[in-house]
Specification:
It comes from Schistocephalus solidus. Belongs to the GST superfamily. Omega family. Belongs to the GST superfamily. Mu family. InterPro entries: GLR_AS, Glutathione-S-Trfase_C-like, Glutathione-S-Trfase_C_sf, Glutathione_S-Trfase, Glutathione_S-Trfase_N, GST_Omega/HSP26, Thioredoxin-like_sf. This protein is α/β, with parallel strands linked by helices. It has 2 domains: about 80 residues, Glutaredoxin; about 110 residues, Glutathione S-transferase Yfyf (Class Pi), Chain A, domain 2, CATH 1.20.1050. About 50% of the residues lie in helices and about 10% in strands. The chain contains 11 helices and 5 strands. The chain has a 5-stranded mixed beta sheet, covered by helices on one side. Helix 1 packs parallel to helix 3, helix 4 packs antiparallel against helix 5 and helix 5 packs across helix 7. It starts with a strand and ends in an 8-residue tail after the last helix.
């Protein structure tokens, strides 16, 4: 099976799966899926991608994964869900000597997961909910301030890239779009994205560093493409081209 580069919806045929190869069911714009893709691509593990339409999920996917959530990883009869567990499975696939988890350790990885969750919740509300408030903008800013203090430099926990970085970084994508949502909530029409983001210099340096990595660039997307997806998702446009 070759990669499916459009999001399959109800009525689309179920793709054939090669059980001897990793198959990732994901959503292009989902940060939880991105962290899995980053891990696969960092370790240069070949995999097939099947994109799942989040508005109109195919019935065959719901049979495969009744929760309907992504990411889902299939390999040799194994069915793995939950992005952090998939990351750890993939990270150990080629052996502990190349494991990124061994760089940061279990406790730091758990800390990174907590950091990403603190960003994910208000970020999601600001992007997708009509009920987002200034309190959500404040919560996101507080989470970014915490991340800014945590970054040891140049990577999250020091001089070396670790699995913690791949867990956190997806939640810093679509930066300008998210920052503009923050400005909108604060009615700060005179401010710019650069002005509001300047309070997190370590985060900005970290973003510049990570965005240069080939395993980040491989499945990156532009803010305007993400904005179209957000609009389609909010309006439940299952037939939108994303």
């Amino acid at each position: 099976m070759s990669d499916v580069f459009h999001h399959l919806k109800e009525g689309d045929p179920e793709p054939s799966i090669n059980p001897e190869k990793f198959t990732l069911f994901d959503l292009q714009f989902c940060p939880f899926c991105q962290r899995v893709r980053y891990t696969l691509d960092y370790h240069e593990i070949p995999y097939d991608r099947v994109l799942v339409n989040p508005i109109s999920k195919p019935s065959w996917y719901l049979r495969l994964n009744p929760s309907g959530k992504v990411p889902l990883l299939l390999y040799k009869g194994e069915k793995l869900v939950e992005s952090d567990l998939i990351m750890q499975f993939v990270d150990q696939f080629k052996g502990s000597d190349v494991s990124l988890l061994s760089v940061c350790g279990e406790e730091s990885f758990k800390k990174a997961l907590a950091l990403s969750s603190s960003i994910a919740v208000p970020r999601y509300k600001l992007c997708y909910s009509s009920e987002a408030t200034e309190a959500d903008a404040d919560a996101l800013k507080a989470a970014l301030s915490n991340l800014n203090k945590t970054i040891k430099g140049p990577y999250l926990f020091g001089e070396k890239l670790s699995l913690a970085d791949l867990a956190v970084f997806p939640f810093l994508n679509a930066w300008d779009l998210v920052m503009n949502r923050v400005l909108k909530m604060e009615n700060a029409s005179g401010d710019s994205v650069e002005a509001v983001a300047s309070q997190w210099p370590n985060v900005l340096k970290y973003r510049r560093l990570m965005n240069q990595k080939p395993y980040i660039m491989k499945t990156a997307f532009q803010d305007d493409v993400y904005a179209k997806f957000v609009d389609a998702y909010v309006l439940k446009k299952a037939d939108a081209d994303f």
